[in-house]
Amino acid sequence: MELNRATLRTLPSSLRIPCYDPAAVTAGILHLGPGNFHRAHMARYAHDLMERHADALAWGILGAGLMSSDRWVVDALAPQDGLYTLIERGDGEERATVIGSLAGLTFAGESSAALLRAMDAPAIRIVSLTVTENGYCIDRATRRLDPANPLIQADLVAPEAPRSAIGVIAEALRRRRQAGAPAFTVMSCDNLQHNGQVLRDAVLAFAALRDPSLARWIEDNAAFPSTMVDRITPGTTDEDRQSLEARHGLRDRWPVPCETFRQWVIEDRFAAGRPPWEEVGAQLVPDVGPYEFMKLRLLNASHHTIAGLGVLLGHAHVSDCMADADLAALMRAVMDRETGPTVPPVPGIDLDAYKDSVTARFANPAIRDTPGRIVADGSPNIVLEPLHDRLRAGQPVDLLALAIAAWMRCARGEDEAGRPVALRHALAPLLRERAAAGGPDPGPLLAVEAVFGDLAAQPAFTGPLRHWLQSLYASGARATLSAARARLGF
Question: Model's pTM, two decimal places?
């Protein structure tokens, strides 16, 4: 059976369907980047709220794709009236729920005109985004807008036809100001430390390059709350589609698999109201900082620690990495010795218990997330941030240096068996070229200051980095990992 509004009430009872009418959902939120994570996370919270309150139907989400990869999502969900199946897996069980919180979808990768018209609507009070770190067009060393970024350069030439998320937000707010309409809230849902502040700084910097008075108006009227988001969400596979059809008789062009765990911590600072997300499990707090710091340092940095080596070792899934005793020991040692000590106390959180939960979540075999996805989509910056803190404190970084060495080995574009390794990074061609040129010498890659800053001048890092990278090339990932365990005692 095809999934759409016409078939919704005739779907098998094994599927959970909305108790509300998805046709009655209207957009109060516009979201840039309607990929798997957004649909497993924020759209799920919105769906749950609509299950509770009829008023929540006015907080539906209009999903807007800016990247060429987003076109596939938009094209897949359009015949389904924006409906999709969320497949939550954990504890040996699987729950399939049809989510109806998307009020519509649009693709703006070729023209942002229709998107900007949608953002003019007074009903849109929140613009949220999951566009990955690359979408913020920032210099990774300074964490500020990079005026030389090609997307930013293009948007400065044609600011009323923007292509970047930053340009779209600034232009939409300019149009609001010109129309005498109130500003909306701009809410990042990306894995960036201080994501609200990073986004605010980028939008204000871009607006100031256009018109300083626009930047002042945005600063005075818009809000940029920070958030911490967490739910492991792999990419959708043909196996997921086939399994859904075999189990439930439902044909869904783009279902979303994810774990059962979810967390959303939101700074309670909005310019034009918000849904009562706290009623469905979100935490509204005055300061997100401690929570996002904990998650980035313990969960995300751990993901990156095992991903590069997992790719080189040929592991298909993150759960396979956790079944590898050497990798599991490395991840726990990184949390206990290097990233964990940089995390201050977090209100209401037992950090040792949180580490245990991270280990258990990564080991879940039902979540078929791949180390290749983490390497491809991620940035070494998540590991470099705790590494910088430890260097400033004069503390060793041997384990984090091993994680960076594995990423550098992957960056050349192939694993130890010659299989291709993807790298979806704004500087991917340059990084791949430098990785291939340097081989066991990290120097060419370290010279990319937009990624590594001044780390090339820090012998406390370059020493162990060079040792591990040379070992990865000369002896391979398994021998290097075994040597690391013997040398460092984990």
Answer: 0.87
